[in-house]
Fold:
Amino acid sequence: MSIFDTYVEMLAEEMLSLEEFLKNLKAGNYGYFSEDDIRGFRLILERNVSESAQAKGAELGLLEDEVYRVVEEKILEIRDTFERVFGWL
Structure:
């Protein structure tokens, strides 16, 4: 199972925050994943945030600048969380 699939499952079952999920991931609670796997997971999260925000922004009629600002904030939050837990991006 991929990290993303595990994250979705844990989110549905336990409502874990991203930070708690990453701490469990780092502790090996979901099996072994390489740094490349973990970085790939971060990129998937960032892409999903961007795609979701753009779709929701279009649905709500938000200006492109506003959507970009929200996406940028969320991606920075994701990166900060990864850096806090792993010490790298």
Remarks:
- The chain has four helices and no strands.
- The first helix runs from residue 3 to 14.
- Residues 3-86 form one domain.
- The radius of gyration is 14 Å.
